[in-house]
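Q: Hi! First time doing this. I have a protein sequence and I read that you can turn it into a structure. Is that right? Here it is:
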Amino acid sequence: MKRALILIVMIYAVSGSGDEVKVNQPAPTEVIHVATALDHLTVLEFGEPVTMAAAGSPAFQIERHEDKVFIKPLKAGASTDLFVWTASRRFAYELEAPGEVKNMNFAVDSRGPAPKPVPDNKDQINDIADMMFTRALLGAERVDSTGIKDAKDRITVRVEDIFQSRNTTYIHYSIRNHSAHPYRVTTPQVAEAIAPEASISIQSLRHMQLDSQMLHKLGKLRERPLTLAKAEVQKEDIQPGEEIRGVIAIRETVTGPSLLQLKFGPEGSHTVQATMVF
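A: Yes, that's right. Below is the predicted 3D structure, encoded as C-alpha cells:
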C-alpha cells in the first residue's frame, strides 16, 4: 500500500509541474505568453548571453544576468510585452497579469536547438589530396632530357615531367647553376610554337627536350604566348653548384605534337630557356 501511495504521489508531482517549467523554441515572429504571480520570480533562460531586454510597462521589474532574464510583477492587474535580444536572436513575450501561484511559469527555457556537430572534413580532404597526387604521379609523362649537356659557367634547365588534367597542363622542371655567381629564378615566359620550316618530323621528337642543334634543324619558330595560372619554385636564388625544382601550370590543354618553350631571366649575356616537344 505504501509503495502504491508513493507511486501515485510521484505521478501527481510530475503531472502537476507542467506549467512550472515551460520549454520553447519559438519561431522568429512568435509571441510567448508568460504567466506570473505577485512576489514570485519567473526566469527566462536562453543558453547564450542576453544583450538587451526591454518591457513596455514599469509594472514589472526586469533584470538580466548573463544568459538569463528575471521577471517580477510589481502591480496586480497589469500586463505588458517584453523583448529580449541575445547574441543571435530576438524574442517577444507577453507578460500576463499576475495570477495564482499554481498557474505561473517559474521558468521558461527559450534555448535554441543544439547546433549540429560540424563534420570533420580532414579525412575527406586528405582522400581528395591523395587521389589528386596519385593521378598526377600515374599520369605524368617523363621528358627525355639526356640530349641536354651541362655547360661550364652556364645555367642548365631541364624539363623533367609533364602532366595534363582536364583543363590544365603542368610542367615540372629543374634548374642547376654551373656558374660562379648566384642566379635568381624568375617566373618563366611560356609559349607554344610551331616549326613550319622543320626539316625533321616533330612527331618523332615527342616527350624530348631539344638541344641547340635540334632547334637549328627546326628552323624559324612561330610562337604563341601561353598564360600561366600558377608558378612555384623551391627557392628563388640559386647559389653556384645548387639545383632547384619548380612547377608551372598553364590553364589550357595542349594538343600534341607541339613545341613548348620556357624562357627564364638571362644569366649575364646568356639566355636561360628550355624547349620540349609535347
